[in-house]
């Protein structure tokens, strides 16, 4: 098992974490001690009012009483990640990436910090206010039951998919989900959905090694979608809601051509084992 050393977690702290292999350089603004066994990591970049509304919903549902909320900022410049706004909304800590990389780098930053702080597991969700953040305790319940990977799905019975763009629906249902399921050896229905949970045991297993620089963008989500099943760990899907706004630009960081091509390329590299660690296979 990979060794994880613990950070001191007493009181408010502000520090810069210099770059080490597998972890981007980042700033930490921790406003509260570790309060819960599980962390909710929310990657954001310039989400504006969307992240405020999502956190308001979380607070109204008592999510901050079940998990420590960690914002994993990719370097927002819209003022949406100030302490004056986030702290009253129940955020425990803000991590700000000061290095290269996109979503994968933000998640590696969050995973590294949360594992060092000693959390038993990590839930992730997008910060664009499309997902049912009220369901976070359901993911925690599954982790407590011993599951190592829990995938949220809008397409399961009990789940809700509202105004999903047609091209996204077709791509997920007919391409992405079948290929991920083939790679994992288990059927999944909503594999581009970043609303999911990971056990500590899964993330620190030497046969997984998620803290590697190869995971810059969407690669980490694809890889972690399949690796648990490949290793015989306990996995499941649970129903969630994903609701796209009724009007205006669709909140997404995936560009139509470049972003979707990157997703496809990542999908098939993952199928052929490109992201497996060189040791511990």
Overall description:
The chain has 281 residues and is of the alpha/beta class. Helices cover 32% and strands 19% of the residues. Mean pLDDT is 92; it is low at 1-10.
Order of helices and strands: EEEHEHEHEHEEHEHHEEH
| Spatial strand order of the main sheet | 1-2-5-4-3-6-9-7-10
Indicate the percent of residues in helices.
25-40%
Please outline the major beta sheet: 9 strands, mixed
Write the SSE topology.
Elements: E1 13-17, E2 26-30, E3 38-44, H1 49-60, E4 68-73, H2 83-86, E5 91-97, H3 103-117, E6 121-124, H4 136-144, E7 149-153, E8 160-162, H5 166-184, E9 196-199, H6 200-204, H7 219-230, E10 235-239, E11 241-243, H8 258-271
Parallel strand pairs: 3-4, 3-6, 4-5, 7-10, 8-11
Antiparallel strand pairs: 1-2, 2-5, 6-9, 7-9
Helix pairs in contact: 5-7, 5-8
TL;DR?
This protein is of the alpha/beta class.
Features:
281 residues, 11 strands, two-stranded parallel ribbon, 8 helices, alpha/beta
